[in-house]
Amino acid sequence: MNASRITLGSINVEAEEPGALATFWATVTGGTPAANGDSVYLPPVGPGGFAMFFQPLAGPRPDRLTIHLDLTVPWGARQGEVDRLVAGGATWQWDVLDEHPHVRWTTLADPEGNLFCVAEHPPTP
């Protein structure tokens, strides 16, 4: 079987305020947002980065999100990144620090309430 040729092109987000939400996520990723009408594109930063595309809400916001981003940082860097993101507008939700031996994470919400996690995995021996 051949390896998949599928790659992540962009994470698309509907937002009440696409420009403001793109600005928040630019602080997360380090990217520079580029507006085009009512939409904003946030390009990937570096070879391991990911792009995001923000557009106006097309309907009412769902009561419950069924998908969220898990962002990974180096071991020992999670709390510093969480502090940086909260200072930039994220809202702390909860920590999971000892439930699983292979990962610990903090769940945050962006300024529009979309959940995302910042996780760290211990180094492998």
Automatic annotation (TrEMBL):
InterPro entries named in the record: Glyas_Bleomycin-R_OHBP_Dase, Glyoxalase_6
Sequence ranges assigned to domain Glyoxalase-like in this UniProt record: 11-118
PANTHER family named among the record's database cross-references: CONSERVED PROTEIN, HYPOTHETICAL FUSION PROTEIN
Protein name, entry field: VOC family protein
Organism, as annotated: Terrabacter ginsenosidimutans
Lineage: Bacteria, Bacillati, Actinomycetota, Actinomycetes, Micrococcales
